[in-house]
From TrEMBL:
Keyword annotations: Membrane, Transmembrane, Transmembrane helix, Transport
Designated name of the protein: Sodium-dependent transporter
SUPFAM superfamilies to which the protein is assigned, alphabetical: SNF-like
Membrane-spanning segments: 12-33, 39-63, 83-114, 144-162, 174-194, 214-236, 248-276, 296-326, 347-368, 380-398
Presence of keyword Amino-acid biosynthesis: no
Keyword Nucleus in record: no
UniProt source species: Terribacillus saccharophilus
Length: 454
């Protein structure tokens, strides 16, 4: 039986960072920061990511490397026959649903890239870009084809394996992503009036910070690190015992925060420079940014560059989500990898079709007052991911001994007892409470609790 492993430490870090970055840092972070108060939100997000996200990320690394197994089998090995084995299955189901509608957004990026290259995005008004976006997502033929194309790329890469597929591609896409980002940031901050956008992102104005935006920042810290779905358990299972786990985790976090910063610097200076509003919400990337770039010299070229890096980030996340299914079903028997990649990739594409049609022929089909796309998004982001993160934060201190955890963390590193104990107690006590706070908020239970005790 042929088993996979990472060829290099940097390959693992880039692949894991690519999984974490994805749409969370480039699509979701800018519009949440835009609606959440800018600089104050960014500062709170940064603190939550380092203080609360890092312990959970290190914890998933420990589970994966300790067991050397896929996400489902890892929990079964540590806690056989117990309730806790549901965590791995929950992660697989969450990633399955997530990738089914995530691939739809990937398809939108491909369509926009095609339209930008052929020049059909030039010269529209801001309202015209909003109308164009609505027309594109409502058209079933192109959106389904683009969604299929996005999944096809993911299948081809994952089928080639961890080393020859995911690692090699990540080593190309991630540096390219940073290079393209730097080009955009240089152009964006050089615009007249761009300083207002820079101040909006980097200068905290706590008067704009609300309890809701603090909770958004907490949820975003977990979402952008890909924690809670056991993707990082699967990636870490390919690691050698010589890998410094805390160092790898903080490298990924630094890259993630840096990309979020670059995304803000690429977007907000231009938005303020041309007098547009930063709180446009989820359509910021597709309806507001084209208007920004259309007002720049060589704007179409810069928008194409942005769409390319956006696509790279989406694909690197898709690789990790598809890999969790492939690893769980092949049990690391690499001879089955190609067949499983195609089978699972095509199944995900088929399950994603209703989401793709949610703004077109199925726009009137609502469940719980939501389109299928919105229902899947809400279920994953607000229920399944926080639930997975909560269960993992409880599982590690309850089912893995402190001596086992320290032994695994210390392998390949010189981590001291002080760091270990801080990590352990933050994960055991602080992280679960923070996740429960987010959970109660997204389920709308805070008002109920306040009314109950008032």
């Amino acid at each position: 039986m042929s088993q996979e492993h990472w060829k290099s430490k940097i390959g693992f870090i880039l692949a894991a960072a690519g999984s974490a970055i994805g749409l969370g840092a480039i699509w979701k972070f800018p519009y949440i920061a835009g609606t959440g108060g800018g600089g104050a939100f960014f500062l709170i997000f940064l603190l939550f990511t380092v203080i609360l996200g890092a312990p959970l990320l290190i914890g998933e690394f420990i589970i994966g490397r300790r067991t050397k197994l896929d996400a489902v089998s890892a929990y079964q090995k540590i806690a056989p026959g117990s309730f806790w084995t549901v965590i791995g299955r929950l992660g697989v189901v969450t990633c399955f649903i997530l990738l089914s509608f995530y691939s739809v957004i990937g398809g939108w990026i491909i369509i926009y890239l095609f339209e930008a290259i052929r020049g059909s995005l030039d010269g529209l008004s801001q309202d015209g870009y909003g109308t164009l976006f609505n027309d594109i997502i409502a058209n079933p033929g192109p959106t389904l084809f683009a969604q299929f194309l996005f999944m096809l790329i993911a299948i081809l890469v994952v089928a080639k394996g961890v080393q020859k597929g995911i690692e090699v591609t990540s080593k190309i896409m991630m540096p390219a992503l940073f290079l393209l980002f730097l080009v955009l940031v240089i152009r964006s901050v050089s615009l007249d009036g761009s300083m207002e956008g820079i101040k909006f992102l980097l200068v905290p104005d706590f008067s704009k910070l609300t309890s809701e935006s603090v909770l958004f920042a907490l949820g975003q810290a977990f979402f952008t690190l890909s924690v809670g779905v056991s993707v990082m358990v699967t990636y870490a299972s390919y690691l050698p015992k010589t890998q410094h786990l805390p160092q790898a985790a903080f490298s990924i976090i630094i890259i993630n925060i840096f990309v979020a910063l670059l995304a803000g610097l690429a977007i907000f200076p231009g938005v303020f420079s041309f007098g547009l509003e930063p709180d446009a919400g989820p359509v910021l990337i597709f309806a507001v940014l084209p208007a920004v770039f259309s007002n720049m010299q060589f704007g179409t070229l810069f928008f194409i560059i942005f769409l390319l890096l956006f696509l790279f980030a989406a694909l690197t996340s898709a690789f990790s989500m598809l890999e969790i299914f492939v690893a769980a079903t092949t049990k690391k028997d690499n001879t089955k990898r190609t067949k499983r990649s195609w089978q699972l990739g095509m199944l995900i594409f088929l399950v994603g079709i209703p989401s793709c049609l949610s703004y077109g022929v199925l726009s009137d089909f609502l469940l719980f007052d939501k389109t299928i796309f919105d229902l899947f998004d809400y279920t994953v982001s607000n229920i399944l991911m926080p639930l997975g993160a909560l269960l993992i934060s409880l599982f590690i201190p309850l089912r893995m001994s402190k001596s086992m955890l320290y032994e695994e963390m210390a392998l390949g590193s010189n981590v001291g007892k002080v760091f270990f104990h801080i990590w352990y107690y933050v994960l055991k006590y602080v992280t679960p409470i923070a996740i429960i706070i987010v959970f109660l908020d997204v389920l709308g239970l805070w008002d109920f609790i306040f009314d109950l005790f008032s």
